[in-house]
UniProtKB/TrEMBL annotation, chains A, B:
Domain MoaB/Mog: 178-320
Keywords: Magnesium, Metal-binding, Molybdenum, Molybdenum cofactor biosynthesis, Transferase
The name this protein goes by in its record: Molybdopterin molybdenumtransferase
NCBIfam families linked to this entry: Glp_gephyrin, molyb_syn
Pfam families attached to this UniProt entry: MoCF_biosynth, MoeA_C, MoeA_N
Reaction equation(s) it catalyzes: adenylyl-molybdopterin + molybdate = Mo-molybdopterin + AMP + H(+)
EC number(s) stated in the UniProt entry for this protein: 2.10.1.1
Pathway note: Cofactor biosynthesis; molybdopterin biosynthesis
Cofactor(s) listed in the protein's UniProt record: Mg(2+)
Amino acid sequence: MLSVQEAFQLILETVKPASPEQRTLFEAWHCVLAEGTVSDLNIPPFDKALMDGFAVKSSDCQNGKATLQIQEIIYAGSVPTISLQSGQTSQIMTGAPLPEGADAVVQIEHCQIDDAARSVKIDTGPVSPGKNMLPQSSVLEAGAPVLAAGTLLRPQEIGALAETGSPTVKVRRAPTVAILATGDELVAPEESPEPGQIRNSNEVMLHAQILQTDAKPQPLGIARDERNHLRSKIQEGLKSDFLLLSGGVSAGERDLVPSELEQAGVKQVFHMVNLKPGKPLWFGILERSDGDPCYIFGLPGNPVSSMVCFELFVRTAIRQFMGFPSPRPQVQQARLKNDYHTSGNRPTYQPARLEWEAGESTVSPLITMGSADLNSTVKANAVALFPTGNQHYQAGLKVDVFLW
Amino acid sequence: MLSVQEAFQLILETVKPASPEQRTLFEAWHCVLAEGTVSDLNIPPFDKALMDGFAVKSSDCQNGKATLQIQEIIYAGSVPTISLQSGQTSQIMTGAPLPEGADAVVQIEHCQIDDAARSVKIDTGPVSPGKNMLPQSSVLEAGAPVLAAGTLLRPQEIGALAETGSPTVKVRRAPTVAILATGDELVAPEESPEPGQIRNSNEVMLHAQILQTDAKPQPLGIARDERNHLRSKIQEGLKSDFLLLSGGVSAGERDLVPSELEQAGVKQVFHMVNLKPGKPLWFGILERSDGDPCYIFGLPGNPVSSMVCFELFVRTAIRQFMGFPSPRPQVQQARLKNDYHTSGNRPTYQPARLEWEAGESTVSPLITMGSADLNSTVKANAVALFPTGNQHYQAGLKVDVFLW
């Protein structure tokens, strides 16, 4: 059976990043840059005041005390007109350009203005060159690289792009993701289950997981375990970039999903992965005539299995589609808070509680009633990883975890 | 001057959580529950098979070997019709209800079916009662609480709500947040700055920060440092739940924002907070005739100050509006990776890089060229907190940090 790492590898080889498209910075948050950017100007473009106060020659105020003649007032957005000589100063606002001859700013709080004499009395500590100002191009020179291809655009990157002359950027879009829950035992959440039935909790859960990746969920409701109904729903779902089927992929006799996908022209990439929960995972691709393939995941119907498979495999595929340079889940280490015991011949991905205390992270695997126990995952904020085999893990041991 | 903690306190006393509203689970992701929920049914509602295989009496297979007579096939969603006697079994699919008399499931992989004899030969390990099945109501009993008021709805909570009969929930909406950048020195990101001008990077950055909180940004462009223009833009912004003004709140002579807000009927709650960067922060409230107030923040114009003030104060206010039980930034501890020196009479909130290595978190404060140096924040994923005063901090010391 395929290992988790082999499954990741096949997903990354199969899923092509979306074609880059141009977007404004208002539409680019949490996208990944498809091309690097350079600055079209010096940052700052001029010697810039960082405080409201008086622009001075630092040589005039070396001991922090001076009385200087006021030449003009320089507002942010305006241009100084008078070059300072020794004994002269100009009042200046935060963000405004320093006049020629000035090399420092004294904060307004340390200045006493004499309107009649058009002078200012400065009383502060020693003023060194560069005080309260940012020299031209000290942050970045025109032509210098700002952000590299593959950078995830957070608020600060978006601000830096705006500042450096990239009002639009090349990024890759997030995919549309259709959700199709299958199974005769399912009823909608607003219905009361008859004997033998359960509510379709996976659809809304997957919907939220998709939103969490910034992709666009397209819920298709419930497909019955009946070929014609399933077929028409699958056809609808295959129009999206991704189709997630929930249920219908294990060894049960009515698990029609793999055969119906094959009928629809979907090529299976893998079926069954060596992990617990989530073994029945199915993955395939449909090459479409428009050139953009559809990627199909058959997720196990048990809610905890479905959730784990999404966070591991579907999220990786979506991140690959969006152009993330490291699409796999980011694993960290944490110390086990309690003893833990594993059994069986598959690696365990156990819902767990990760906590940070005083610079150390600890993890407590959660006791669950099995992979149908969605309620236990409500306490989880992470998944703890344990290798194959019957093993006893002592509290204090470091184990791998990833956040979910 | 107000301390950071006093400013938090005033924000939390001023901002009222939004009125609860009913939403479907498709619209409730990342909202906070305004009312607790209870389950309307037992989870699971019946003894449920966790594997495809054969439902058995464990007493028939104590040593793992048995040949049993097949009674019927039970699919998920159907109801068993035959009660098992000793020596009998029914084939069963994952998710289906166990027949009366059965107390365990043997996986299909360990079963050999003899179609002619309508029997199955089981060859597996010892079968204990409860094997591969989840007993009725073992996860949750009907009437038991599922989620408490104040719970943030992640995918797993949404799934649990669907399962337990809460297809709609009472949650508090995210606010609309208008953004108004002020200053004659500003030009739009798509323009080339003339001498003395800079690009308006704060608007798109705040836009992205707002999206990151799930609130709805409403960018209003640039207001000139001219009373009539500023006034009409402010009137437009005061229709939103929040109005963020960028720039125009420090001690500069053209800082018209506080006086124009007062003219518009906005009551100042505080101005100036004892932190670096971000001291000029302004906060107020407008009581409107419709009963829903508008909350107004005047943010410093320097991009790094603006970013820090948003993450500390605006985010706290938005989380309070959305009903988060702990709206303040969540502080963790991390070890300093390098020596660090602070100076001045205000606590420092320094952009920093937080890293997790082998279960320990370390933090490196970033060298910046001051609060206009947006480029340095591109390397940051956190803010490190240092108390007031000229202090030397040695590498290895634990300091407070929060993620941004």
